């Protein structure tokens, strides 16, 4: 994601745009994988040694609430990645080793909906976890 697109996405949220938030979001946008709050903290502390875990986690949660980040549980902890820029419905394959994701161009919900036509689906999340070629 280009730097101007990152800034535009951040500015379009209801969050106050600060230099540290820009820096944090830029780090996340440069990653092609899910990252933990600790990964973000390690990155941010290199430039801001006094930054706390609570500050990082609170910002990650705010980014996710604004729809800027997607969250999942990976290896027992919450992990985050920038929300896909793709406008079409899709899901992901997620590596449990490195957190990299791969776009999955199908949705199994059309099959699930046929099992109970009286059940109204309002939302769903479908992720497949495994190991990429480099991690297996």
From TrEMBL:
Name listed for the protein in its UniProt record: Fur family transcriptional regulator
CDD domains to which the protein is assigned, alphabetical: Fur_like (cd07153)
Detail which positions bind Zn(2+): 95, 98, 132, 135
Which source organism? Exiguobacterium chiriqhucha RW-2
Predominant location of this chain?
A: cytoplasm
In alphabetical order, the GO MF annotations are: DNA-binding transcription factor activity; transcription cis-regulatory region binding; zinc ion binding
Domain of life, source organism: Bacteria
Q: Where are the transmembrane segments?
A: none
